[in-house]
Amino acid sequence: LWLITFRISKALSVVFGSLVLLFALLAIGEYSTAIHKIAGYVGLFCGGSAIYTGYATLLNATWKGNFLPLGPYTAPTISDSKV
């Protein structure tokens, strides 16, 4: 899912990217209490970014504006001179 979010918005990429990191750290954290504690902080960041992304999406869609930025990705353009 993380790769798919690269075409949607930067905020959603941060959410899913930190979620991938969180799952990896939680798996490694089974063998190290320090890594498990770091995973907790990554989880807090992931949750906070998910709340922001959800709120920004809802606010921007409801009021039809760009009140909280999500950082939309722009598709790369291919110029004829480089082909």
Describe the structure.
The longest helix is centred in the middle third of the chain and has 31 residues. The two termini are 31 Å apart. The chain has two helices and no strands. α1 packs antiparallel against α2. The chain is an all-alpha fold and 83 residues long.
Helix proportion range: 55-70%
- Beta-strand content estimate: under 5%
Shape: flat
Termini separation comes to 31 Å
* H and E string: HH
Q: What structural class do you assign from the helix and strand content?
A: mainly alpha
Mean pLDDT across residues: 90
Nutshell version of this structure?
This protein has 83 residues and is mostly helical.
Topology, element by element:
Elements: H1 10-28, H2 33-63
